[in-house]
Structure formats: C-alpha cells, structure tokens
C-alpha cells in the first residue's frame, strides 16, 4: 500500500472513531455554544423504569426521568449556556432528545446504555416552552415516549416580554406548568391512536380532585405543552377567553382573545389569563369524546379568600403504588386477564408484534394449534437498539422455543403440543412480554400435566445483557433452545 493511501485510511478510521463532541458548529447560528463555553446552568436527568400512580388504584408501568412521568420541569433563561447530564440507572437503554436546543442532541445524550451517562451543552437562544423525551435510538424513541418518558423545558424570555406582564407591571400570581399526555394499554392501541387515559400532569382528572386555587382577578400564566405522543389537544377554559396567547411560548408569536389553542404533539403555548370572577372554571381539552372524557379536565377554583400556590409543577405526582391495584397500564407486558384472547379449535392463531408489544398479550390456544407471530413494526431506521426488529423467545413453560430475528412482515410459527402456560419475551427488548396458555380441547390430541419443563432467571439476564443491545441474549436463547429440543 502506498503511503498516501495508508494515510487516507488512517484519517478515515480516525474520523469514524472521533467522539460526538468533535462536531464542527456552523458559526453564527443561534443555539450553538461558544467555543469552550462554561455552562452557567446545569441539570441532571436520571433515566430508569418505575410504576407510577395515575389514578386511584391505577398504576402505569412507565419509563421515567427522575422517578416520575412526566419528569421534572427544567427552567432556564434566554441566553443561558446550559448543561444537561443524563444518567441511565435503569435496566434498558435510554437517552434524551432535548427540543430547546438547536442541535442534534442525540449525538450527545441519545442511546445511553444502562450504567452510562451523556452530557449536552447548548445555548438557550430561543425563548419558549419545549418538550424533552427519551431517545434510545430509532424505533425505541417512539416506544419509550409511549412509556411516559418526557417532560417540559421552559426558556424564559427577558423580563417584561409577555404583554400582560408588561401592562400590569408585575409577574403572574400563579404559574401553571401543564403537560397534556396520553397512555395506551398496548402497542396495537398506540398504532390506532386509542389511549385508555388522557391526563394533565400525570394523573387522570388530577386538577378535578386537587383544583388549582385562585382569586378573582389573579393573573395566571399557563405554560401549556402537549407531549402526546399522538393526539392533538384543544385547550380551553369553560367560562373564559385566553387574553394573550404565544405560540411555542415565544413572545413574538402573540395572538389575542382566543377561546382555544390547538396543540399537536410537541406543540406548546404560553397563555396569559386573568380569572374573571369567583367560581369553578373547567380547563379542558375540548376534544370531548377522545380526550376530556378520558381524563383531560381540571378545575381552576376561584374564591376571594383562596390562598393560591404560586407554582403548579408538571411532574407526575409521587405516590406509593398500591399493593393490589385495580389496573396496571403496562403497554409492553400482560398484567390483566382481560388482555387475553381465547382461540377456538380450528381458528387461525396470529399474534402481532406491534409497538414493542405482543397483541394479544395473552393468547389461550387449544393444544395442537400452530401459533404464528408477525412483526407489524414498520420503522427500522436509526441507530441504537436493533430498531423495529424483534424475536420471540420462551423464558418459562413446558417446552422452549425461539425465533430468528424478524423484520417487518416476517413471521415465525410454532406448533404447541403440550398443555400449560408459556411465558416468552423479545430477546432484543426484554421488557416485551407475552403469555400463551395451551388448553386441552375435545377431539384434539393432548399431552397434559407436563408442568414447567424449563425456566431461567430473566432478571439476571436483563441486567447482564441490557447494555449490549441484547443481541447476545438472542444467541444465548438460540443455544439454550437447541440444547433443549
Ligand atoms: Cu427510554
């Protein structure tokens, strides 16, 4: 090899290995940190998984920042140089997409393995209200957002930029940071846009049970953000008209006298409003049948002798999950018998792999059935976990089975010949869990009473393999299966 070629190869290898921080910024573009900038504000977001309470006796098996869904509020001032540190203390790969930064934040804080951390520095040049959410890479960005991993960032403009503040010559009496978001029982419902609950700040009808206290004439500033992940909000006060509305929260984007603001996923508004009288003012998403009725309603309770809290935070409430919840909303795993479907003898058994879940999550099938899994997940671009691809791997039951890696529209079939309960996972995304219950049916051959033929310790597995994109898990499952069968 001649010397020039060798140097070119070395230079290429060096470029490929260069860390993300070696990004060359375009000079003069707002949002880029000055060279060697020292941050004057710093925040740490801790990624993990947790059960959070979203209604009386109802638990959401969520992915979280700092223990809650939504995660903590981050407030900075326009012009700040901001440092965001993300630490992943969870079992699975997580990350961060941070919309207040005018840069590709995933290069710095996306796709962080368990135990890892990342750091982002940016300059907050655009005032407004922004979303942040998990970014493990590719398809997982969508599904971890489905799992509740998001929060609000506010970049405060210079004092007096909002008109009502300027006119009154004072700060708001009450700042209400309000996130609208929805949760889904499974990936199929996520695809179909059918949430089970729609909430403000982490709880169904949260501000109906704990109304926001105010006095007539109080100046309220709403920082309203719809994080979706999919629905469009129609935010309205019953008996009120929003005095000033700022699209995105930027004071330059002002509109006057609106009954409603429409916020698509990630869309936000700063709203200035004075409470016009005593009484209960409902704040609602006016999409009645799809949102208000499912929990997106609150109350501003105004009375002359109220003692308002000056700040209402968007974090989900911190509450100890009950020992025996009425319902566990767990998009990626079966938690309730009503998530089962019983297939009759002769019926074709198809299980969809969709939105990082199995659907139906629990399939009751006659012994002798052939079960076919089909991967309906379409999105397979991006880095990170093996995105949009799945497999099926038994972890417990009378007989072991495991599929190859399935891309969109690819299938795997398995004939079930022994009665009993089978638990299986996706080896790539071990939080995806499904159950098969094989029952004996009249007229079909059966092999009853086999009990549990094999099992392995899933927890140790996830802890060990979680950071490796779980590919090694697949190999392990494959080997284990070939030994058993
Ligand atoms: Cu995540």
Automatic annotation (TrEMBL):
The keyword Oxidoreductase applies. One of its GO terms (molecular function) is copper ion binding. Residues 51-159 form the Plastocyanin-like domain. Keywords: Copper, Membrane, Metal-binding, Oxidoreductase, Repeat, Transmembrane, Transmembrane helix. It catalyses: nitric oxide + Fe(III)-[cytochrome c] + H2O = Fe(II)-[cytochrome c] + nitrite + 2 H(+). The chain crosses the membrane at residues 458-477. Coiled coil: none annotated. Its EC number is 1.7.2.1. InterPro entries: BlueCu_1, Cu-oxidase-like_N, Cupredoxin, ET_Amicyanin, NO2-reductase_Cu. Cu cation binds at residues 94, 99, 133-134, 144, 149, 286. Residues 357-436 form the Blue (type 1) copper domain. Its cofactor is Cu(2+); Cu(+). The keyword Lipid metabolism does not apply. Homotrimer. This is Copper-containing nitrite reductase. It comes from Caldiarchaeum subterraneum.
